Amino acid sequence: ANLDAKDNINKLKQLLVAEQTKRGKAEESKKKERLRFKEKEKSFQKTVMVERNKAKSLLIAISKFKV
Length: 67
Hints:
By secondary structure, the protein is an all-alpha fold. It is built from one helix and no strands.
């Protein structure tokens, strides 16, 4: 009976380690996904700024032609 108890404890320990590893990997994955999202967001913001500047330049050029 004592061996069974030890065996059960070892199995539970293995399950716990496996669960912690799985959670750790999930957390790591979430962090990476957040970073990827932030990078995409930065890239999008840069694109918006560039396009906005192009539009301003075009408006200025058009307004000069209207004279």
